[in-house]
Each structure stands twice: as structure tokens, then as C-alpha cells.
Task: structure prediction
Amino acid sequence: MIETYGVTKIYPGGLVALKDINIKISKGEFVFIVGPSGAGKSTFIKLLFREELPTKGQIFFNGKNITRMKSREVPFLRRRIGIVFQDFRLLPEKTVYENVAFAMEVTEASSREIKKRVPYVLEKVGLADKAGAKPSELSGGEQQRVALARALVNNPDVLVADEPTGNLDPDTSWEIMKLLNEINKRGTTVVVATHARELVDGMRKRVLQLDKGALVRDEERGVYSNEA
Amino acid sequence: MRLRTFNYFFREAFISFARNRWMSLASIGAVASALVIFGSFLLLSVNFDHILKDVESQVEITAYLEDAADGSSIARLNAEISSISGVKQIRFVSKEAALEEFKQQVGKELLEGIDNPLPNSFRIKVENPQEVARVAGEVQKLQGIEEVKYGKGVVEKLFNIIYWVRVLGLAVMAVFAAVSIFIISNTIRLTVFARRREINIMKYIGATDWFVRWPFLLEGMMLGFIGSSVAVGILAGGYSYLYNVVKLNVPMISLIPAKEFYDYALGFLAIGMSLGAFGSSFSIRRFLHV
Result:
């Protein structure tokens, strides 16, 4: 469902973020992208939802070449991709329910669909009782669950998370990982960029290791690092 | 577009309106002043036009005859003047009739016992006021005409005034329109800035560019609409007041009744909304990178 061919990203100024990346991620997979800061994890994620365009190479999503996509098609690509960030990116003045519903309003879903779908997704991430709370009243882990609910509410083909546990303590991080695993088990492809060694080692999923922009390892049921 | 989405756009527009209260009021004030000034010049120019038509219809040529002219030369002149192109109406005023008229104007007693000094004359009306000068010139050339008089200069001056009122009105309007657009675009820029986080999130969750833009465009149009409504209110109130004052105190000047301007009000609202839309699209293009 995601295929990259010779993807290279050089930022203006000459920084080489990714070098000749060839990756194939199939539907239903759970993939970790690991590596130290500056290895190119975030750039890879940004290329997936077309925040950035590769300098060279092609990226296919569901068989469609997204590097050649017109910019007015990009919103519709992003509706197929649920995105979760390290800093949650919730709207502080909206309630949990409204934050999640917002993602559906943007796609011009009907009120009926929204009223049906939002409680369902909040229930799935275990926040049914917090629907009326503002993000500031929630813990970090709960806020990230709201972000997950928002990413899932439009039923995306793939969930992409960039350092989803970067701001969370180890216990909470584990809960988020278990939630991601459940989401994956229900059929959603999950791509997680992280440098949380314990989580990766504990999950034993496919691991793509990046180092200085190059793909140095692609291992099924892998751990964070072979050398350690 | 779904009704629900449209509601969302309106709600968002109102929220930022409330958030940037002072800038919003400044924008409304700018649009309102631009349109009040434009409207004043417009009313002035339309009324000048109207008054001019009035004056024009009163412009007559008076051709004084030589004292020597007798009945037959009067008849000849009458025929000759009538044949000049552009002459609408010609009326002979005898010495005696002229004196009677004069007596009525200055009072009988003053002229008692004075020999009639007034000459015979023709009063000539022309079809088109702009031809007064030409017709007067042709009449002057005729045999037996002593002197020709008409409201020379008055007509030309009025034409001139109207011209300058219009030029000035458009120039001032242009300046104020530019100021309105500038202030509105600044207001929208503040809104965009206050909501950059939200805009960013909207883009990540797949909002189309127009979905992001609409609330800002609506906000601008709303500012323009309110501003022009204020202007229409001020102009309507002010003009009705002026109309009544003039009607009571200077009855010979006839202004156009206020109700004949109702159609203009719609035009003003349209102009105000366009100013708003223009101002916000300016900011959207520059500061909203979607």
C-alpha cells in the first residue's frame, strides 16, 4: 500500500535527509521506523502525507503516485492517512468530542454520521467518559488518545505516528503502543517513527532503521538495534 | 456545500470577529467612512445635475430690438428667428409689456411719470441648453437687433462644478477604498495569525484549501457589509434631514427626494462586501499558505 522507489530528500541548504530509500509496506502491517534524531524519520513521515516532496524518487500510496499528485488532491490523500504527532496538536478551546468531530466536519460529513462515529471512536480509545473535557484537563496519555481518536475517526487506510510517545512516561507509552497494536489488529496499517528502544523491543514488529538518511536495516519481528 | 459546513464557516467568522473586536471595528469604520464620503459626493453630483436641468430649462435668450424697428421688421425678425435651428419657442414682448413686467418687479410708484425706456424684445427658448450660445450669436447677426442677452457663463460654470465634484468624489473614494482594503486585510491577517495552529491542524486532517479560506473570506465580507450598512444609514439619515431643511428654507432649490436613492443602497452594500472580500483575499493569499 506504501511503496517508495529511490526516494531522496535534500533540503534547501544542502542537508541530505534521506538517501535512496526503497521500501514496501503492505496493507495491515505494523512498522517501526527507528534511528537517532536527525536520521530522517520525520522527513520520511512528512513525505508520506505530502507535507514535503522528495527531491528524487517516487512514492506510491494505494497504487497512486503521490509525488505527481496535484495540490488540490492532497487533502483527499490526507483523509486516507491518520496522523499523530508527539505534541498531540489538539485545539485547546474545543472539547475532546469537538476535537474529534472537527476531523469529520472538515470532510463535510453529515451531523448524523458525526454523532454516530465520534462516540464510537472515543470508546475505542477508552475516553468515552471524557468527551466533554478540554485537552488542558487531561493527562498527556489521554491527550494522545484524543489525537489517536481524531486520526482514526475518518477510518483511514494507514495511521502514521511521529514520536507518539515522545512526551509520555514509560507506562503511558506502553498503553499507547497497546492501543496502536489493537488498531492494527482491526486492520489499519500502522507506521510509527520512534526512538523509544524499550517499546520497539517489546513489540517485536517490523523495524526499518535509518541512519544519516540511509535505510540500514529492514527486519521482521525486529528490535531497536542489533548492535546493543 | 453542505448547510452544516456553511454554518461552521459563519460561526468561525463570528468567533474571530469577536476576538479581534477593535480591529474589526476599525475595519467597519474605514468602510463606513469611505462609503459615506463617496455617497456624499454622489448625492452632491446627482443633485447638481438635477438643479442644472432646472436652471437650463429656465435659460432664455432675450433679444432687444432697435428702437427704429417697426411692425413689419418685427414680423420679419420673428420669422427669421423662428427659422434658426434649435429654437423651440419665441415670444414677442412689447415695450409696454416689458414696462408692466418691470413695474411688477420694482413697484409701481417708483416708475410713475417716467418715459418708457425699455425696448421691444423677443424672448427665445432653445431646444437644447448647450446651444444657447450659438443661437444667441446667430440672433445677434440679424438686421434690427440691438443687443442679445442670456445667462452666459452660468450654464458653463455649473457644468464645470459637476465635473469637478465627480472627479474629486472618485479620487477621495479611491483613497478611502484603498485604506479600507488595507485595514480589512490587516484584520484578517491578525485572524490568520491567531488561528495558525488551527489552520495547521486542519491541513493535516485533510481540509481542502477552500475549507480553510472560507471563514476568512466571510469575515472580510461581513466587515464590509456592516461598514456599508452603517454608511447607508448615515447617508439616508443625513440626506433626509438636509432635504427637509433645504425644502423649508430654500424652496427654489429642488433636491431629489431621498426615496429615489433606495436602489443605490443595494449598490453600496455590494461595494462594501466587495471591499471586504478583496481585503481578506489579499491577506489569505499572502499569509495563509494553504
Q: What stands out?
A: DSSP finds nine helices and four strands in chain B. Residues 154-194 of chain B form the longest helix (41 residues). The two ends of chain B are 19 Å apart (CA to CA). Residues 60-150 of chain B form a domain with the Alpha-Beta Plaits fold (CATH 3.30.70.3040).
